[in-house]
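Tutorial, part two.
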Amino acid sequence: MSVRRRNLIATEGLGLIGTQGRWSNPAAFVVLFLLALLARAATLGNPVIGFDEQFYLLVGERMLHGTLPYVDIWDRKPIGLFLIYMAGAAMGPAPFLQYKLLALAAVTATAYVLYRMALRAGAPAGAALCAAAFYILMLDVCEGEAGQSPVFYNLPMTLAAAIVQAALLKVAAGERVPLARHGCAAMLLVGLALQIKYTVIFEGVFFGLAFLAAGRRSGLPTGRLALLALGWIFCALAPTALALAWYWHLGQYDAFVFTNFISIFGRRPDPANARIEGLLTIFGILLPLGLVFAVPRLRRVVGQPWLRWPNFAESWLIVAFAGFILFGAYLAPGYALPLIAPLCLASARSFASPAQRRWIAFPLLAFIGIAGQAVIAISAEQKGGRDAAMTVAAAATPRHGGCIWVYDGYPALYLLTRSCLPTRWVFPGHLNTDNEGTAAAIGVSPEAEVHRILASQPEVIVDDAPVYALANRATRALVDAALRADYRLVARVRTGTARFRLVYRRKDEGASLLQP
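Running the prediction step on this input gives:
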């Protein structure tokens, strides 16, 4: 290691290193913010971007009025995610915009941390900026254009990775590192990310092992390392333990434990053909940047008897990919979102020269940027944008103080219509999909809950056509029978070429708003 590099690490410690080349840190931050704003601008006015985040916002908004997740409204996501959405809802009178502004801030901050990490790893400023820009644009092609959970938890995980990277570099340079303090900081960040989604556990374990490796290289004795490891584990689990303790205090320990740690094992597996199709789609989306990362490394090892040991960014990518495979959820491109930050960081050196940036990075950035905007536009057409959502909401708004029930469709309708909730299981997928179709998965028989909801005679039922391919056939049959017997179709809103949002009212109510 050069004297300049050693002095740089010693001077900066665990802070992210300063400028290289013509891109100052403030200038890079502004560029990344403007790029993120441009990339996500088309989503800001759409209240029905993704079904998951519509539901997260519904939970967050109802929490402001005393609703308790897992007890009054059911989902297995950690409480931290709902707290983020509660903060978004509390910011002002436009919750659908406000949570997207929080997501914009998280994306910009994550990209900036990746930029600084790439600088620290030795990438030129232009290459580091390209890597950060790829992070922003890749989100749009992987269903991360608004507020999916990885958009938020990638920030604490990337900050934790930055602390680990800096510690490893200092240890490699022979510098003293206060591993206890910095390890606790990184593991607390991992703990916060765990309370947004538990799947970050794989990367969190890797970060902890990296700190142990740094401690061993620093010459710490085994006993000292064991104590440090216990402290780091405590820090990583502390946010979850705090949430558990709060629910225990409220007398809802069982509800918290079942929802957060047990219910996931009650889900039925997705069909193999759907998983394979989803996995191939994800690989196709990641392929261009994956080739940019992989091809130069393959060239270096041709004819070599041994592969070199991967650097930190590459190791992080390997672990994130292993976690993605082990978790086994591939039906939607959004499941690839945790891979994007390490992939972009690991790719930074592929843009080291001006020629690589001119002929590889810039054309690929343009291609992904255009593809992302196309994906956003296609998604809005197929799912419906603001106009479709407001049309459906106008048709579904209760007139007699009753509840609507979204059996399939926009969870956002509960907010847009200010409806009461007819069930704890208001996310449609909990009652209308086959993989959630057991009491072991959601804590209640879906058929029994649908019977109960229908017996309460919801004023409006919202449905989609055609029927979801992986639907729960038992609950589907119950709903179809009720719609034929007791409800009339009053609105049919086309989205895309062959999908409709359907609004049904009880037969003794209202004039038809049926569209041709």
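The mean pLDDT is 91. In part three we will examine how such features are distributed along the chain.
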